[in-house]
Amino acid sequence: MNAGHVREPAVSVLMTVHNAGRFLAPAVRSVLAQTRSDFELLILDNASTDGAVPALAAAGLDPRIVLERAAGNLGIAAGTNRLAARARGRFVAVLDHDDELAPEKLARQVAWLEAHPAAGGVAARTELIDADGRGRVGDFTLPDAAEYRVFTAYSQAANFGSHLFRREWFERFPRREAFPFSSDFDFVARVAEATDIGVIPETLFRYRVHGAQTTQRRRPEQVADEVLIRILAARRRAGLAEPWAETSGWRTRLAAATPGAIWLRAAALCRELGLPELASYHARRAAGAGSPIRALATALGSLRHPRAARLFFTGPLRTHGLHPWPPQ
What is the CATH number of the domain that holds 19? Predict the structure, then answer.
């Protein structure tokens, strides 16, 4: 661990790294290029084997970088928690090792949070980039705090890496290792239930889309995580306890689904649990994946709930009157 890091950083940027390859250097450079310089960059080498972290260290580390190595791959959730426990900044950002920050991101978001003391965090708009850093399109973002909260019942309302949070929310809601591929979605859903999360209508984050990223390689496991997170969020928002003892059985049922059928299995599970809107949401996803009408009808059952029926046919955005950027 470096001894010469910033004495009192305003922001802690957390980065867990596992075989980042050529993407690590530009991700780190994007942090060092921030217009606000009072930050620390905490990097956890999560048992990488590709040499990217040693190459970074050999080139000479900026004194604001704190580098440590895990004996084994802790995973993203545990790795982030380990770094968050060491964070000294009043504000915390999490950056994946293959994404990039716009130069003014930290400055703009710190200023916003200082001007909005009741908010727990703030997101920004995102630009999608390819493996070579070329811009593609703007990513989905809900720029209104109230709409943001509503949509977290279904998915993330802004790319997670675009956020900056007050540090206390990482202390209150550590990333849950039960969701190894979607702990960020679970974190955001819980935080959004307890505080406002604002959105700056500027593009301050670059999310890299490439074939080696976890969201591409481990998509079935990620879908299962997301289904369980939606169920738990629905329970919490109804004032009910989280049924942790049952989640392992639900995960087993989802994992047993044949490729392409997990959405049908999720719809049937939500129907059994008395969650008609989530049943409709997952049935809609199954329809989008090409599931036949008869299978959808079996999984969903009767659409006796008007809002659930509307959600199936029009989606959660129109059902709840949400207005994303870019327009859908």
Answer: 3.90.550.10
Alpha-carbon gap, residue 281 to 86, rounded angstroms: 39
Find the length of the chain.
328
CB 129 within 8 A of CB 135: yes
Question: 305 phi and psi, to 5 degrees?
Answer: -90, 115
Print the domain residue range for 267.
219-320
Query: 45 and 156 in one domain?
Result: yes
Q: Has residue 93 been placed in a domain? A: yes
For residue range 243-287, list pLDDT tens digits in order.
Answer: 999 999 999 999 998 877 999 999 999 999 999 999 999 999 999
Token pair of 116 as six digits: 């909005």
- Residue 203 resides in a domain: yes
Total of domains in the chain: 2
**Same domain for 311 and 183?**
no
Position 190 in a domain: yes
Strand pairing partners for 41? 13, 65
Give dist(CA 96, CA 117) in Å, integer. 27
User: CA–CA separation, 78 vs 71, rounded Å?
Assistant: 13
Strand partners, 208: 129
- Taking only the tens place, the pLDDT of each residue in 295-313 is 888 777 767 788 888 999 9
